[in-house]
Recover the amino acids of this structure.
């Protein structure tokens, strides 16, 4: 199953999600752990936003100290996730995320630019499964490099016990 969406151009100064289409991937149902071998899932997402903020400082009765500021910000993000059900109860997930940001403001000495790239991988094993009850173990790692904050490697070990379809505990 391949699911892709493209959100193009949001033009509001708020920092909300540019489109509800892009947000739907977070709530997409996960495939059950008992599907056939070599099943694949993929998700991709692209968002782009441009924001313009204008400020006017108006002094009453005089225009000598009046100030006008025009700021422009561009924000874009691309991500993709690819998952394989290797065998029943064993799954691999790989993906990347890329972000770019540009800000032009009179308060900055030059244009501000930021870039981030993240790569990640995860192995998931369903150790126990009976009816709606499941115990899953996940091992993974994520590497990020950011033009402002440098590089970071983040390992992951997680447990998830699902007692019922809408009742689970994460650790």
């Amino acid at each position: 199953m391949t699911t892709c969406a493209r959100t193009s151009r949001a033009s509001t100064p708020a920092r909300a999600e540019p489109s509800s289409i892009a947000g739907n991937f977070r709530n997409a149902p996960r495939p059950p752990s008992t599907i056939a071998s070599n099943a694949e899932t993929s998700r991709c997402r692209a968002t782009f936003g441009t924001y313009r903020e204008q400020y006017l400082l108006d002094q009453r009765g005089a225009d000598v100290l009046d100030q006008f500021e025009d700021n422009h910000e561009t924000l874009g993000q691309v991500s993709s996730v690819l998952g394989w059900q290797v065998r029943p109860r064993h799954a691999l997930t790989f993906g990347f995320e890329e972000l770019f940001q540009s800000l032009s403001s009179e308060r900055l000495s030059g244009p501000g630019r930021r870039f981030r790239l993240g790569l990640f991988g995860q192995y998931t094993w369903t150790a126990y499964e009976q009816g709606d009850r499941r115990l899953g173990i996940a091992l993974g790692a994520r590497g990020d490099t950011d033009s402002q904050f440098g590089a970071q490697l983040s390992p992951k070990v997680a447990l998830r016990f699902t007692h019922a379809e809408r009742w689970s505990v994460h650790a």
